[in-house]
Specification:
Blueprint: E1 3-7, E2 14-17, H1 23-32, E3 35-39, H2 73-86, H3 92-102, E4 105-110, E5 125-130, E6 133-138, H4 146-155, H5 159-171, H6 174-182, E7 189-194, H7 196-210, E8 218-222, H8 230-235, E9 243-248, E10 269-273, H9 296-301, H10 307-320, H11 333-336, H12 340-343, H13 347-353
Length: 359
Amino acid sequence: MVEWTIACASRARRCALRMMDSPVRNNCRAAHRCEARPETGDISMSFLVEQPRELFPEDALDGLDTTAKDFKLENAQALMWMSQLAYETAHEGKVNDILKAWGMTRLAFGSNDPVTGLPAKSACFVVAEGHGATIVSFSGTDPLKINDWIKDFTLAPEPNVLHLGFTTAIDAVWPIVEAAIKRRTEQPLFFTGHSMGAALALLGAERALNRASITPTAVYTFGSPRTGGLDFFNSYATLGDKTFRLVHGHDIVATVPPSANGNFRHVGRLLHCGSGERFAGLTPAPSDQNQPDLDIGFLAANGFANVAAVIGEIKALRQTGLIASVGARLLGPPTNALPSIVRDHIPTSYFQALSIPLE
């Protein structure tokens, strides 16, 4: 997460906030003519989202079917691997090596570091082509830092504020992504991402359609939050039936912002499997549904009075340093220390639910 230092021109006050685009920061800027600038900090991901090079199989994308008109498990598996690759953008050589092994050609790349020169609040992404398709994948949020933006979702007073948070991230990279998909080989185009990367994939797909006049073939998201309000839902309608929104178990990110908080809407067709279960055999729901919602009863049964209590637990785990210091690659004792609503969200849980072995 980036710390935004806001220096008020009026010298009435100085603010330091740690959050995705915040209404407090916007109000400060409006009232005091603030200049906001990102202070780059630790941009590295924990083991919960990065994977060792040897876990990326050479045949990861071989099952991609570019002619499929409906949900296909093999496509979800291939695009989950591309979503995972977007988490590795801090290691450009690693990304290039994996793409080469997959028979893919890199068209565009973005990482929050001095190498690419992108702002620290912009999106990390990979655009590549091969196997008869062009794929745009966006990186999500490290679960060990998830408390920051879940809190902001919970407190956001109106959908447009949340939407601004995501558009701030994608605005910085969209010209690069748009140029890449415009110069791609004429072939099917897919968007994908996990967590916040899923929300960015939805925004990217909508922009491809409505700004670049390019219709994506399909969009596959994993653990996506509600991305915007009714305006975005309506502007996305053309892509609703070709967007597949996969949710595993009690994944908290898929429940925020709460549907009761304003008019936040999911887009796309939901496939929701139980915790520790599989997506195989599921049929996508209609694209007008807005589930899942946060299960307060489940929180209480697991010892949490509310989302704030979950956030407190994650903060406590981060402060111990125990989880961050363990280099685990599979579900096990380190990840079991996470609350289940966060553990169900991590990429490894989605690989498992997609019947993809990580070994």
